[in-house]
Amino acid sequence: MLTIRRDLVEAMVKHARRDHPDEACGVLAGPQGSDRPERFIPMLNSARSMTFYEFDSGDDIRLHRELESRDEERVVIYHSHTATEAYPSRRDIDIAGYPEAHYVLISTRDPDSDELRSYRIIDGEVTEEPVVVE
């Protein structure tokens, strides 16, 4: 189960709304082996697309080094869907390369409400999981 502080949820949703109609993306970092993220790291969607996201490769390498130096990992990898439900697309599943991470999706298709859901994606298998916001 994923437990996220309310301020981190609000930061992800705000980022998703700000980047709409393009998909927003980023990471919530935390201690290695933890299911409790502690730090919000918005990333640039280098694809600048309404239908998929892509971390800039240089930014991703810098993030990897920073996390290693702080003994942190990608507890959450998040992105938004701008016109569909918060469920991983085939492309999302194909690029999910961190089996230890929680994949959080935020749908911004409805301007009056935010749909946030979390998944584990391991070897192409998608499993939805509960999210506790505290």
Commentary on this structure:
This protein is an alpha/beta fold. It has a single domain, classed as Cytidine Deaminase, domain 2 (3-Layer(aba) Sandwich), CATH 3.40.140.10. It has three helices and eight strands. The protein has a six-stranded mixed beta sheet. A two-stranded parallel sheet has the order 1-8. Helix 3 links the parallel strand 4 and strand 5. The longest helix has 14 residues, at 6-19. The radius of gyration is 14 Å and the shape is globular. The mean pLDDT is 96.
SS element count, helices: 3
User: Could you tell me how far the N terminus lies from the C terminus, measured between alpha carbons in angstroms?
Assistant: 13 Å
Strand order of the largest sheet: 3-2-4-5-6-7
**Structural class by sheet pairing and helices:** alpha/beta
Helix and strand succession?
A: EHEEHEHEEEE
Q: What's the count of strands?
A: 8
Percentage beta strand: 35-45%
Helix content: 10-25%
The domain count comes to 1
Features of this protein?
134 residues; alpha/beta; Cytidine Deaminase, domain 2; 25% helix; globular
Brief rundown of the structure:
The protein is α/β, with parallel strands linked by helices and 134 residues long. 25% of the residues lie in helices and 35% in strands. A hairpin with a 2-residue loop joins strand 6 and strand 7 (125-129).
